[in-house]
Amino acid sequence: MKAAHNLVAQVLRKPEAVASLGLVEWDLLIRQARKADLLARIYAMLDEQGLLDSIPAKPRAHLESANTVVKRHAQAIRWEVHCLAKALAAIGLPVILLKGAAYLMADLPPARGRIFSDVDILVPKARLKQAEAALRLHGWASSHHDAYDQRYYRIWMHELPPMQHLKRQSVLDVHHNILPETARVHPDPGKLIEAAVPVGGNQSVKVLAPVDMVLHSATHLFHEGELEHGLRDLVDLDSLLRHFGDSPSFWSVLVSRAQEQELTRPLFYALRYANLVLGTPLPESATINQRPRGLLVALMDALYGRALAPAHPSCSDWLTGPARWLLYVRAHWLRMPPWRLVHHLFHKAFLSSKNL
Asked: What is the pTM of this model?
């Protein structure tokens, strides 16, 4: 694991270390944290620890500015969720939130200092056309107009083409599963929907059950090919595991659910790198028996040790670029069979309308 210059991870593991940072180190920390989309998260953590007063004025101004942006963003997302609930109520569907919006509406620890570019929801595949029609009536429209992209999303992917509201310009991803239809593993979205829990007793807005929320976060991160914000997503996992892990039964239920949903491999990596990078405490009941072989683990450590760091030159060496590229290829390999992958990459490289 390469983390010697990853100041963000060091501060996240040991917040009190900020008291000894000089202005040069603060400058580097802020640059790294901005690249990782974790500047406001660091503010929230230091605020909780009562350490803000130990920060020099200039770096504190950057942190406070990031926190202001997050507060305004949270207000906008709450309104967006209200509008989504109204749109889907017309067809009798609740809004099942995923990732960032779910953390915010459920007031979970990952929401503190968290900013995200879109809202993700989960609907039953059988109701997908109805949901899309209802959303169109309330101002959302598809943002992908290329015929190939439309066909690719609707036939092969686990979501509709991204939608954007015509007035508010907010972006919405409508999922019917957490992995593509062509992926090598096949979690059952029906079980996720069935186990979803209401937010604050409001049956029109739901989030995934705790173990499913962790598994989705793990699956999203370790099937993702673009890892510029990989450390932020790992911080989400760390927060979820520390929060839900207080329940004695959580860990055994989590491992059991991962086996049931064919998601033991992403869970293994999630637990391993959360512990190695951020010091997430793991009990013995979190042990996964179906772990990768030793050489593969060593390879993945070399790759993710670089990719799960801020995309900043100070966190990179000559192998960082190849590591990120190999994980990008791996993500596509996991998402679709070889023949489909070759066809897709060829089309995007040479035939897409964007290249004409």
From this structure: 0.91
